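Field guide to reading this record: the first block holds the primary sequence, the second block holds the structure written as discrete tokens, and the final block holds curator observations. Each block starts with its own label. This record concerns L-threonine dehydrogenase, catalogued under organism Xenorhabdus budapestensis.

BLOCK 1 — SEQUENCE
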Amino acid sequence: MAISTFFIPAVNKIGMGCLNEAVELVKTYGYKQALIVTDHVLNEIGVVGKVQRLLTDVGIKSAVYDGTNPNPTTINVEQGLAILRQHDCDFVISLGGGSPHDCAKGIALVAANGGDIRDYEGVDRSAKPQLPLIAINTTAGTASEMTRFCIITDIDRHIKMAIVDKNVTPILSVNDPALMIGMPKGLTAATGMDALTHAIEAYVSIAANPITDACALKAVTMISRYLRRAVKDGSDVEARENMAYAQFLAGMAFNNASLGYVHAMAHQLGGFYDLPHGVCNAVLLPHVQRFNAKAAASRLKDIAAAMGANVANVDDQEGAEVCIQEISRLAKDVNIPAGLAELNVKAEDIPTLSANALKDACGFTNPIQASHEEIVAIFEEAM
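BLOCK 2 — STRUCTURE
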């Protein structure tokens, strides 16, 4: 077995009402001025104001950047940096889902290391730790609040840059399901399927190890059990809390075993068409696993069992097929679009999307390496 390194924030708070406890902990760190990185919606509905009041109560001042795009861009990072420097912020708080977390990571990394966010594309390109980042999560999906992954759209090249760097790991992650209750159905479904994709891709990854396997399979079981409930009734506290734990487990899995072609391909769709990441993952997931079944059938059979299917008496290939059917059934039950054509993906763009997908760092740990033609075929099958 190869040597494994396990990355995770130093402190992680999970559970109903843990936000208040987290702010009390932040007080002990001695920071004075926060930059809160978030989006317009969370500012408008008062979530940002709530966090600012909690910070004020413990003597911490805050400035706000709420311009984060759903697919955060190089411009978002520059805009946030300008506000950070203007207010002389000594730490960053990300508030939201994957978009604000990734944007905040980009801001905090450049604030400490200088240069431009494009300088850090790839693996461990930074020289020193970013400005301290505290990640307060409001969705159950991306796990960006606890990972070393940062995905930023380069608006000049129309691609998503994958920045994988131990120095973008937050120092504290906060998953308070009370902040997730108001999440709309579509976002609950998309982020939940994103978490499922993380777990499955980590489990079939060539960098998987016993720790990531345990996290991935438990995440799959919990998502299969609770995602439909969370989508059906957003105020189902038990479902919300279990989805918060499930997405965190999936994050622990992929933060250390990395991902595969679902993410490599979904990043291209997001960068090219500005589509929602979780939806792209959900549509591609069964098609990529059908391709992976050539090399990872026994692992896919394990996933089918974790999803609750009875595969005890079938061979690995049949088990893999059951897994693919279970994924499709879950996606359909939470109203994920049936194919990429519904997302207005154009057939003539597929060769370019495929070429770029093969350069994405996420694909390097896929269980089987694909040719350009094979990626094209998966995209076409997913249409």
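BLOCK 3 — OBSERVATIONS
The chain is about 50% helix and 10% strand.
The radius of gyration is 20 Å.
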